[in-house]
Amino acid sequence: MSKNVFAIALFLFLFNIVLAQENEGADTGSHHKGESVAVKLFGKRYFYIKEYFQQPTISLQTGLGSPTLGSLQKLPQFNDLNFAGIRLGNSKIKTSELRAGGEINELNQDFLFLENYSSKWKLKNNANLNTKMWRFGLFNTDGYGYRLGEKNFLMLTYSTSLNWSKLDVDNLQSFNDSSDVNKLSRFTDQFRFGTAYASGVSFILARAVSLDINYERSIVFPGHKVWYWLGSEVIELGAHLLLDEFIEKILSSSPSVAPIVNAILKGGLSFGIYELRKDNMNWPFKTEAPLFNDGVRIGLTFMF
Q: Three-state SS for 226?
């Protein structure tokens, strides 16, 4: 089953990359400037590609997470987790000029990542659950923003992730409630599949380095029911596609406010959906509660 889950997740991620590349229109290289080819998206928006840069990317990440598991009845709370991680991937920065006037600056990034979480890196309450966790997976970031000079940008971003996590609880055996211990043990016996989204900002300097600040919500499934998960994902994807159609109209008519609207609406939609998944991991289907994590992350990203 785990091989099937990985294959489905990898297919969806690669399909998203291919779709993004198709939407690049006439882009054919790593660095372009002054393209004269008009591009049409979804039959509604025309623009000219003004500049296009594609660069290999390394990103170093750190931050703080607060895990919860809603189905626990008697076990204490989790201590907060610090984490550090690395991402390897690719960044694309595209500047387009609308025929009707106005500029659109767009960021797209695809990564493979590895992260380590631990409650040992900070002061903690030893009466709570002390945990460690390894996490790896696939990460995609999209966003629109503003030019702050010839090569500097402020991007408002929305990110999604497919990932696998394995939790270790240092003091699990010191608790006597067998029901809660069994629930928590499902996350410690092997790597478990999960998803995440993040909303934030990226300050890009000289198209070479960026400071990234994000708020992230993630869930880890205690067991993966493929069809329930696909059904829940299709509902979320459908909502985002409808939202994309609305944002496309704003990009055409009011490009100066589109980055803000895009970030607020996409982040708000995912926040609400993940809130509904706190008790049912594959909402709206009646399923188990996932391991839930709210976190803040800071990253330093290098584009070569």
A: helix
Q: What is the pLDDT of residues 144-167, one digit of tens each?
A: 999 998 889 999 999 999 999 999
Confidence of residue 273 (pLDDT cuts 50, 70, 90): very high
Q: How far apart are CA 283 and CA 288, in angstroms?
A: 10
Q: Collapsing DSSP states into helix, strand and coil, what is residue 218? A: strand
Q: What is the pLDDT of residues 37-59, one digit of tens each?
A: 444 444 444 566 778 889 999 99
> Alpha helices of the chain — where are they, by DSSP H?
2-22, 178-185, 226-253, 258-276
In eight-state DSSP terms, residue 79 is: P
**How many residues would you count in the chain?**
304
Could you give the count of Cα atoms lying within 13 Å of 15 in the half-sphere of its Cβ? Answer: 6
- What's the whole-model pTM score? 0.80
The Cα–Cα gap between 213 and 216 comes to 10
- The alpha carbon of residue 78 and the mean position of all alpha carbons in its chain are separated, in whole angstroms, by 23
Residue 126 φ then ψ, to 5°: -70, -10
> In sequence order, which residues have a C-beta less than 8 Å from that of residue 147 and are 6 or more positions away?
95, 103, 105, 153
